[in-house]
Design goal:
alpha+beta, Gyrase A, domain 2, 4-stranded antiparallel sheet, two-stranded antiparallel ribbon, 6 strands, elongated
């Protein structure tokens, strides 16, 4: 009596879904890049504010005060106003809940949709997402999942087109939404 021996193949390596992990890495890198940009702008403005304070102290020491307050030239006043507006923009960017937005966007992703870019406009509290989907149904499901997040409102598909030159014919899309505080 002979017995046939068959080889058993066991795959000990756990495989994970590639798209959500890649999207998570992309969003983490994007978030870190945005935070670095904001940090550099903040540091730059801090140095500029120190220079402005030194100029102000110099003006006070030289006695260029009037009974109504400190007298600045129109150019210095304009530069000071510009610096204050830039500092306020940085403060607005730092106050945005970046972590919550990126976490919720990562949770809305699946293997049929790839997010390629994220643009924010803190002044208007708007978000523009660009990416590709395998088919229109997957794109609309992604839009619905984004609508269900606490950080986004008024989510709508701004445009889409089939990339005919790509052999897989992905659907390129742009989604626009308003960024809200949860």
């Amino acid at each position: 009596m002979t017995h046939a021996v068959t080889a058993v193949k066991i795959d000990f390596q756990q495989r994970s879904r590639g798209a959500p992990r890649a999207l998570g890495r992309f969003l983490a890198v994007l978030g870190a890049a945005l935070m670095l940009a904001v940090l550099f702008e903040y540091l730059f403005l801090g140095e500029e504010m120190k220079e402005r304070q030194a100029t102000l102290e110099e003006a006070r020491r030289t006695g260029s005060r009037t009974p109504g307050g400190l007298r600045l030239s129109s150019a210095d006043g304009q530069r000071l106003a510009d610096s204050l507006r830039a500092a306020n923009r940085v403060v607005d960017q730092l106050a945005m809940p970046w972590g919550a937005l990126l976490t919720q966007m990562e949770g809305a992703a699946d293997e049929h949709v790839a997010l390629l870019s994220l643009q924010t406009d803190p002044a208007n509290r708007s978000v523009r997402l660009s990416g590709e989907a395998r088919h229109f149904g997957a794109l609309m499901a992604y839009v619905r999942r984004l609508e269900d997040t606490a950080s986004l409102a008024d989510v709508h598909l701004a445009g889409h087109e089939v990339r005919a030159q790509d052999p897989q014919h992905p659907l390129a899309f742009t989604i626009v939404a308003q960024w809200v505080q949860p």
